[in-house]
């Protein structure tokens, strides 16, 4: 006699759980851990209407370049929502750079999920000042 097949978790519940965990990691400053654990190998990431960056390794290098320029980063989650395999989170960031610049801005991250991993992430925000 075969084992009964358990129902799979609905996409919304899976995305909600993963979104909550990603947001918890980001709010606690564990950006690299969130990326390593929850982003798909083929993830596509994009800032506003800029060109997409495709693949986990290309995005890891892009993120590393950014974080290597940072002295201190504070992230505050202002709100989030999940609908199906899409999630949205609003953030306030205060970032102090090695150059002496400090940014205080808000950003929305729109994520699409598949099998508990982010497959697409797009950030919406006003233009940043140039990093000197």
How do the strands and helices of this protein lay out in sequence?
Blueprint: H1 11-27, H2 31-38, E1 39-47, E2 53-54, H3 56-67, E3 70-83, E4 86-97, E5 102-114, E6 117-124
Parallel strand pairs: 1-6
Antiparallel strand pairs: 1-2, 3-4, 4-5, 5-6
| CATH class annotation | Alpha Beta
Q: What are the low-pLDDT stretches, counting only 5+ consecutive residues below 50?
A: 4-9
How many strand elements? Answer: 6
**Measured on Cα atoms, how large is the radius of gyration?**
16 Å
Number of domains: 1
* Sheet/helix structural class: alpha+beta
Q: Mean of the pLDDT scores?
A: 89
Q: Strand order, biggest sheet?
A: 2-1-6-5-4-3
**Can you tell me the CATH architecture?**
Roll
- C-alpha geometry: globular
- Secondary-structure element order, as H and E? HHEEHEEEE
Helix content: 25-40%
SS summary, helix count: 3
β-sheet strand percentage: 35-45%
Q: What would the CATH topology be?
A: Nuclear Transport Factor 2, Chain: A
Distance between the termini: 68 Å
Main sheet summary: 6 strands, mixed
């Amino acid at each position: 006699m075969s084992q009964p097949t358990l129902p799979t978790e609905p996409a919304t519940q899976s995305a909600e759980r993963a979104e909550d965990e990603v947001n918890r990691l980001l709010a606690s400053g564990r950006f690299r851990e969130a990326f390593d654990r929850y982003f798909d190998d083929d993830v596509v990431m994009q800032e506003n209407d800029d060109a997409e960056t495709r693949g986990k390794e290309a995005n890891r290098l892009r993120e590393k370049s950014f974080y290597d320029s940072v002295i201190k980063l504070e992230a505050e989650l202002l709100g989030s929502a999940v609908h199906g395999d899409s999630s949205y989170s609003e953030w306030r960031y205060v970032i102090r750079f090695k150059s002496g610049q400090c940014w205080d801005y808000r950003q929305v991250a729109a994520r699409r999920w598949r099998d508990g991993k982010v497959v697409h992430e797009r950030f919406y925000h006003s233009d940043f000042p140039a990093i000197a």
